[in-house]
Amino acid sequence: MSKIYVLDTNVLLQDPNSIFSFEDNEVVIPAVVLEEVDSKKRNLDEVGRNARLVSKLIDDLRLKGKLYESVPLCNGGKIRIELNHRSFHQLQEIFVEKTNDNRILAVAKNLSLEEETKNGGRPVILVSKDMLVRVKADAIGLISEDFLHDRVIDNHDIYSGFSDMYIDTEQMNSFYEVHKLPIEGQMSEPYHPNQFVVMRDALSSSSSAIGIVNQTGTAIHKLIFDQEQVWGIRSRNVQQTMAIELLLRQDIPLVTLIGKAGTGKTLLALAAGLLQTEDMGCYQKLVVTRPIVPVGKDIGYLPGEKEEKLRPWIQPIFDNLEYLFNTKKPGELDDILAGMGSIQVEALTYIRGRSIPDQFIIIDEAQNLTKHEVKTLLTRVGEGSKIVLMGDTEQIDHPYLDAMNNGLAYVVERFKEQKISGNVKLLKGERSGLARLAADLL
């Protein structure tokens, strides 16, 4: 049976192409949604870009017919702008204020009541990313759904970058001797290039080894940088050992690190970047940046030059650099960085149009990037550069993103089959006992 989907504003602002995601059903956009989209189109952020794209898509559809009646879509469905059914009579005793959300609910409810009076009337479904709008819809007897088409993964089942394997003693001894284990017949689950494998002896609880699947997928090899000390930092757990391997490998230009606060993502990435930039000379510069998304209420405009404005946002990076350089006095780190000249702290705002060759690029808090933003970043990477994206997909401050549709998860899932990328999900917090307990309990 054909259905009618009424779209909330946040669905269009999250994914402008959402109007093509409902197969051969009818998509209805209330007039108040167009007003909300219009109010956002002058924004200079991702929301403003999506508002402008929605406006262009609808304007293009206008050329195919009368939008207040219905216009066919390329997927077999239809779309129409709903100018009627705005009566607030059905909701005035339940929701007193005529907010935009309540107006959208009124349109969906009136459409649903009209369809119920018809023979073979179609179900009316309100689609919204706003949980409270869906709760309100349920309260007035209206069917509602979240928009799930933009999800990269389901049920938080993101690719971890490693798996366990049980082998016999003979195979374990062979791996220790020749540092290689043929993969055919060994792994029952699908594997990916540069995926780590924790091998355990099926008959012995104490014997184990860590290997990495080669880029052709034919064998598991011994780690190249096992037990490597990086700028004075040693790995404290298995996943940190895996992360160091990826960070130091010249043949893996894209690395993604996922983990809770305190798992060592930023510290390891900075240490590996400093080693390869300053000591080994593999890269000309170490570029560090992070999205400017506040936690809690925004503190507003900041005084000073670009570097001074960025300092509050980049302070976590400087905290890790102070630890790596073992600075004790105020201003000592600034003097060191000024003398080195090869460490650059940049804002994502100025990344468009740039080409960044021969540099080690670190993007912290990448979970707050949208799919479009992360695409913009990766397409800036020049020849000979390495980029590291890291963050915690459970700590998202962006209002239109969640653990299953953010830019970091998008990159992890889309690149897991590629030979040039590697991913590790760090599990154990190493900042302190208190930080580890807080990450687990809070």
Automatic annotation (TrEMBL):
SUPFAM superfamilies: P-loop containing nucleoside triphosphate hydrolases. Residues 3-135 form the PIN domain. PANTHER family: PIN DOMAIN-CONTAINING PROTEIN (PTHR30473:SF2), PROTEIN PHOH (PTHR30473). It comes from the Bacteria. InterPro entries: P-loop_NTPase, PhoH, PhoH2-like, PIN_dom. The keyword Methyltransferase does not apply. This is PhoH family protein. It comes from Bacillus changyiensis. SMART domains: PINc. Keywords: ATP-binding, Nucleotide-binding.
